[in-house]
UniProtKB/TrEMBL annotation:
Start and end residues of each Multidrug resistance protein MdtA-like barrel-sandwich hybrid domain: 59-196
Origin: domain of life: Bacteria
Lineage: Bacteria, Pseudomonadati, Pseudomonadota, Alphaproteobacteria, Hyphomicrobiales
Family: Belongs to the membrane fusion protein (MFP) (TC 8.A.1) family.
Signal peptide per UniProt: 1-17
Name of the molecule in the record: Efflux RND transporter periplasmic adaptor subunit
Amino acid sequence: MQSFRMLGIGLACAVLAACEEKAEVAPPPQQVRVVSAADAQHQPGAEITGEVKARVQTELSFRVSGRVLERKVDVGSHVHAGDVLARLNDTEQQADVSVARAALESAQAVLAQKTLAFNRASSLLQSQAVPRAIFDDAQKELLSAQASLEAAEAALATAKDALSYTELKAAADGIITARSIEAGQVVSAAQPAFTIAHDGPRDAVFDVFEAFFLDGRPLNDVLVAPVSDPTRDVHTNIREVSPVIDAKAGTIRIKVGLQESTSWPLGTPVVAKLRTAPRDGIVLPYTAIASADGEPAVWLVNTQNHTVSLRKISVGRYRQSDFIVTRGVAPQDLVVTEGGKFLKEGQAVAWEGK
């Protein structure tokens, strides 16, 4: 009797083990949500902040050295062409003008004397009262006096120019945007003193990160608006793209021309919406992305055997709510967007979605 009981218990255990093995072999399909991959165009873009600058800016400096006697303007001052911005101590230049003027007067007196001597020698030569050599000497001394007079006149003009250089004048109408001198300071010739932003056309200037240009040069049409009031946006065109990269910042400078009717003050912070040419790709939501050996991948559903497989992909661009696939997914592929965290290669799934 006891042997029959043991046989019954063994049979019951075998049945239970068979049930468990059957459950492990055929688990229920994993429920997932999918999306059908479809071709789509995407247009890479970026919003970059910059500022309004004058199209023409000039650095002004003295053309002679000296001590700054007076500074008449400051940053933000609006000046007109010819306005005196600063003065140097001109004692030395005044002395040079006085010396040059005295030398000119001396040369004029010598020329007058040599002219009289030449005229007298010419009259005596005509009456044959003096030999030809005396006339030739008088003529030579007259020519030398004339040359000395011309040199003295040039020296006086140079001295006057040097005196005028002690006054720094505005080259055009505009606004002073930078100042690097102060009264009492000793400056050298060509040392920057002021920067003037010329009145007239304005540019919106942006330093764009280098990676943006991997998608190609941005389109000429740009939407620009003040940071303080984005509703005042204007459409304008790119006027200049720097041919070199800033080695320190890794940026490329872009200048966008503003219309004359755009009355934004210099230095106004602005934001530009830059775009490149449209490109083909497949757009997928962020929930679809997975990882395969540290590289981006997605789960694809095989509609014939109702299983999933992990496929590595190439991502062209990550965006705020989705990403662009350029390789690895074909149109009409079913991509898992939800429920993919615990999937395994070849696992059976049941899906819903489009």
